[in-house]
Write a structure and sequence with these properties.
By secondary structure, the protein is an alpha/beta fold. The chain has a domain of 217 residues: Aldolase class I (TIM Barrel), CATH 3.20.20. It has 15 helices and twelve strands. The strands form four sheets. Strands 2-3-4-5 form a four-stranded parallel sheet. A three-stranded parallel sheet has the order 9-1-10, covered by helices on one side. Strand 3, helix 5 and strand 4 form a beta-alpha-beta unit. Bound molecules: ligand V47. Ligand V47 binds next to strand 6 and strand 7.
Length: 382
């Protein structure tokens, strides 16, 4: 295509977006073409983002808990996992887990993000017990836990249905599910990077079941490894299709691949330009998902700030104890203070708003930071 043809094609996409139309597979692939101006794609995504979320930049106060890194799977992109007998392998004790809950409470966290490996020897009750113990001790903290890959494993371990497992975990204290484990759905890619774990159909089935019993979930896409634009856009369309059915996804998080210490360490990390383009294309394709998260831990602070002008409206939380990205070479700090996170949103020209996991506005006692309550639902326009 020459420049005039590119501009004509882009104009027809812009008209479609501005009139509330939907983009298809070919549109998404076109927007990924490096010859199509990144700034034009970003500007359109920013327009869409402001239609949906105004000028707000969301964040939360959260912590991560990775109770074990021992995992039966050997995903080629993962630097966090460990074999059972590897000296690096660990599984946290109840005391360690409760201490993390206490720390989260003392820091005013509204959320614990809990994911880990599928341990060869620890049964379903160990995983369920983590939620139960934390919820009993710290009932106000929202437990966003276990990806679809873990739920698939629990289904295998318990021989119960997905909905039975999810219902049981909810009784134990599960508040919602994170979006991990999605990677790239297309089998041409999935078979190369994580052939054994839950496939696309299973991942979608589990999120659909969660939505049907009233649990909100997030969704992700791991990009910048062996996939092509076609696979990324196909992935986004599969998520959009499920969202049309259930409306249960809250936020989409594009995850940039970090190659260090993985079986794919020969690959180059995606560039900041690729990161911004992916944020923007995601915002445009996923017209029915309320939020796009620029996860600062993974993008780096500067790119996360820029992403707030390329379609993202959320940068995740203060975060503490993140291991999955730091094991894979992330050089971002381990945690940001509330002042730092608010400042970086302000610097990006957005209004910082603290939210809880299900996007309700959080209000804090000005004299006692750890005393908080949730207010009205935050309004979005999807
Ligand atoms: O599923 C693993 C990815 C995911 C690497 O729901 C890697 O709010 C890059 O899903 N390089 C887990 N990515 C993290 C995740 C997440 C993060 C933040 C917020 C939420 C949310 C979810 O991390 C895995 C995989 O896709 N991952 N290893 C790596 N080397």
């Amino acid at each position: 295509m020459n420049q005039i043809q590119i501009q004509d094609r882009f104009k027809s996409i812009r008209d479609k977006v501005e009139q509330g139309g939907r983009l298809g597979l070919d549109d998404g692939i076109f927007l990924y073409d490096p010859e199509v101006s990144l700034h034009a794609v970003g500007e359109l995504a920013n327009w869409k983002r402001e239609q949906i979320n105004g000028n707000v930049g969301y964040y939360n106060i959260n912590t991560h808990l990775n109770p074990t890194n021992v995992c039966v799977y050997r995903c080629r992109f993962c630097a966090f996992r460990s074999d059972l007998r590897d000296p690096k392998g660990y599984a946290m004790s109840d005391e360690q887990i409760i201490a993390r809950g206490q720390e989260a409470h003392d820091n005013g966290c509204t959320e614990m993000h809990i994911v880990g490996g599928l341990h060869h020897k620890l049964g379903y009750d160990w995983y369920r017990g983590i939620l139960e113990k934390l919820h009993a001790a710290f009932p106000k903290i929202h437990l966003k836990g276990w990806t679809a890959v873990e739920i698939d494993w629990f289904e295998f371990l318990t021989k119960k249905s997905i909905k039975e497992v999810l219902g049981d975990l909810r009784q134990a204290g599960l508040g919602s599910m994170p979006g991990g484990g999605a990677e790239i759905f297309h089998p041409e890619v999935r078979d190369q990077i994580c052939e054994h774990k839950a496939n696309a159909t299973k991942w979608i089935e589990i999120h659909q079941a969660a939505h049907e019993i009233g649990l909100k979930t997030n969704c992700t896409m791991l990009y910048g490894h062996v996939e092509q634009a076609y696979h990324r856009v196909d992935h986004l369309l599969r998520l959009r299709e499920l969202q049309d059915k259930t409306g249960g996804f809250q936020t989409f998080i594009p995850l940039a691949f970090h190659p260090e210490n993985t079986k794919l360490s020969h690959l180059k990390k995606p560039s900041a330009l690729m990161d911004l383009r992916t944020v923007a294309v995601s915002r445009l394709m996923l017209d029915n998902v309320p939020h796009i998260k620029a996860y600062w831990i993974m993008l780096g602070i500067g790119t996360a700030q820029a992403a707030l002008a390329y379609g993202a409206d959320d940068i995740d939380g203060t975060v503490r104890h993140e291991l999955i990205y730091h094991d894979a070479g992330a050089t971002t700090p381990e945690c940001l203070s509330v002042d730092q996170i608010r400042q970086l949103i302000l610097e990006a020209g957005r209004e910082p708003v603290e939210r809880d996991t299900i996007y309700r506005k959080v209000h804090r006692d000005p004299d006692q930071f750890t005393q908080w309550y949730v207010g009205e639902d935050v309004l979005v326009n999807v």
